Structure formats: structure tokens, C-alpha cells
Amino acid sequence: MRHTLIIMALLAVPVSSVHAQMTTPMTRGSTVQANGSAATPVTYVNGMPPVMDHNIYAHALLDEFEARYNTDGGQFRYDGQAWVGTDYNKLWLKSEGTVGTNGRFGDGDHEVLYDRAISRYFDVQTGVRMDIDNGPTRAWGAVGIQGLALYFFDVEATAYFSDRGAAGRLQGSYDLLLTNRLILQPQVELNFYSQSDPARANGRGLSNIDTGLRLRYEWHRKFAPYIGVTYSGTFDQATTLARARGEHDLHNLNFTFGVRTWF
After folding, report:
1. pTM for the predicted model, two decimal places
2. Is the dihedral of CA 13, 18, 19, 24 positive or negative?
């Protein structure tokens, strides 16, 4: 009889009251200790719980892998970068170069950078740059920013320094979506030097420019063939230095085709 009364008493307790007793500590943001007493309430910055922002990711982009043709012959150019790290800290690698009409590898620029996110759209980068190609090797320190400017322009601005003076590079591009897969991309790169370097045909001031207009079709999101028109040229002192070295293709307007890929 006693057991029957106990069972009837338990069944008389409303389920909703039991559920409320179980969930009340959690909805108040409190933790429950082993002895059943409530601990200090849990508080979040701006009321937002923490996110998983320390996972390690990797990304690589071969932005230019192309052949260029004009009346003087053909050229090959590549430009790519890759990074590995977290949302805030990354190891960033960049490399570019050109095989000219003379068959020599030039414009070899290779960089190893530490990247730190400073805002939602921009990172600051610092590291070393090595000019390694057919010409004399040069080493530079590097510091700059990279990210998305207003209206989602992809921009890079980097300053370099060494015992040979200072240098600067400005790069920018923009993806204009004609359709979901057909994309028109204007692109420009400008290089500046504080001192001339005759061995590498780099002149003081604006030394050279590389720009183009490319139309790509993203057959797959990670693989896009493209065609376009590109221009590369040297200016001011760089023009004089290049002619002294016997170079004649100082201003090239090229028909270009290639592929863009990433993973």
C-alpha cells in the first residue's frame, strides 16, 4: 500500500514543472556545481558566444598562368599565392615571373610573409622578398596591406627596403560578373624604386607596369580558362637601362590566353 501511494504522488507532479526546474539554470546562463548550487553566471562579450576561429586552413590561388603573343613573339607569365593558418594569423607565400621572347626567366619575385588580420577586410603583411631569376639576386624586407577595398576591389600595397634603397608595389583587380560564370577582370600592377639598379634594369621612380583585361569562364568554380589583352612596359630611367642591355620589347601589347585555378 505504501509503495502504491508513493507512485501516485510521483505521477501527480506536472511534467512542465519538472522541465522548468531542469532548464531554468541554463536559460539564466548559470552553471550548476556538483552539489547542486548555482555558480557564477556565464557572460559573453556583446552577448555573443565564442566562435571556432583557431582552426587551421589552407588556400592556394594561381591567378595568372598564361601565354602572351605579339608581333615580337611569345611570352609566358605566372602569378600565384598561397597561405596556411587561422582566421587571424597566416603564413603567406607569393611568387610571379615571366619568360620573355628571348627565352630568359625575368621579373622573378618570391615572397614569404607573416599575415595578421587587422579588420574585417584587410590584413597587414611583413616578411622578405627575393628577386630570383636570370638577373642578379636581390633581397628585400617587406611590409604592406592586402584586402578588399570599397565595392570589393582586391588591392595590395607593399613597401620594400634594402641596402639599395626602397621600393613600392601597387596592385589591384576587380571581378565584374557578366553572368554567374562569365567574369571580366581588369588588373594592374605598378612598381616603383627610389634608386636605379642597372643590373636588373630597374629605374628610379615608376619603373614598370603590367596590366590587362581578362575574360574568364568558370567552367568549374576552381578552374576557369580565359582570354584577354595585356600590356607590359617600362618607363623613364628603366627604359634607358633596358635599351643599354640590348632589350627592345619595352612596350608590349599582347593577346593573352590562360587558366585561373584555386583550391
Report:
1. 0.79
2. positive
- 24 with 137, same domain: the answer is no
**Total of domains in the chain:** 2
| Mean pLDDT, contiguous 10-residue spans, the chain (263 residues) | 44 43 41 55 65 85 97 93 96 96 91 96 98 95 97 96 96 97 98 94 93 96 97 88 74 95 95
Give the residue numbers spanning the domain of 18.
2-47
The amino acid that residue 135 corresponds to is G
